UniProtKB/TrEMBL annotation:
Pfam families membership: ABC_tran (PF00005)
Residue stretches making up the ABC transporter domain: 16-253
Gene Ontology molecular functions: ATP binding
Keyword annotations: ATP-binding, Nucleotide-binding, Transport
Protein name in UniProt: ABC transporter ATP-binding protein
Organism: Streptosporangium jomthongense
PROSITE patterns: ABC_TRANSPORTER_1 (PS00211), ABC_TRANSPORTER_2 (PS50893)
Record-linked CDD domains: ABC_MJ0796_LolCDE_FtsE
Organism lineage: Bacteria, Bacillati, Actinomycetota, Actinomycetes, Streptosporangiales
Domain of life assignment: Bacteria
InterPro entries, alphabetized: AAA+_ATPase (IPR003593), ABC_transporter-like_ATP-bd (IPR003439), ABC_transporter-like_CS (IPR017871), ABC_transpr_LolD-like (IPR015854), MacB-like_ATP-bd (IPR017911), P-loop_NTPase (IPR027417)
Amino acid sequence: MTVQKTSVEQRLSSAVGLEQVSHVYGANETTVTALKNVTWSFTPGSFTAVMGPSGSGKTTLLQCVAGLLEPTDGSVLLGEHRLNGMSEKKLATIRRDLIGFVFQAFNLIPALTAAENITLPLRLAHRATDQAWMNELASRAGIANRLSHRPHELSGGQQQRVAICRALITKPRVLCADEPTGALDKASSKAVLSVLRDAVTELAQTVIMVTHDPVAAAHADQVLFLVDGRIVDVMTAPTPERVAATMTRLAGED
Ligand SMILES: Nc1ncnc2c1ncn2[C@@H]1O[C@H](COP(=O)(O)OP(=O)(O)OP(=O)(O)O)[C@@H](O)[C@H]1O
């Protein structure tokens, strides 16, 4: 089954719209088609998990959404901005202002404190720090008493929460997270997922998270399932058991 949303209303009310997005890596006889005609609308203020077998195109999809990768075909719309064909300069500004990205490996700067890591995107953009916002984020993430620590003095879960604060400090419209709990134990994962959930529920963020973990996916409002570069199923109000059952079924069909 291929699930696609195409109505004009859905596109107009979307935080991110993908229209017939395809992506092919490589050239000539060594090409890999990672995404095939994906059309989807991510509703503002929603939490979406993206799942699928290894190599199904999840990271490629997330990178297209974040403007880190230009699809070989189709369009990516970030609200009113169409990313295709945009100059690298404009794209960099859009990424800086409208997108937050969280990686499995945290990617914090070791020599900077947690507070300095969080405010780095603002300093790079020559913007002042809104101290009240910084304090709110840090306290929501439960790291307010860790702000003067360097990354090596923090647990993995705390480092990921710093990374989420860093992604949210610019108040981006969309937060993209690529396996944010992939390197964390159960308790740290839970804490990180609750920060992402709060970002959606209380800060009206749009969160798109790639994960392999059915428990993590169950924190989302909906789960997109990718197989071979296509959305093949969508689940709303997911539970770990239903997500795991769908993954097992899809692996069997693969
Ligand atoms: N830079 C690249 N050059 C060539 N092929 C690539 C490149 N990046 C990804 N691919 C291929 O594109 C396909 C989709 O990759 P992608 O990383 O998006 O999948 P994924 O679902 O995120 O996988 P995983 O769960 O293993 O991280 C795979 O077949 C992969 O080998």
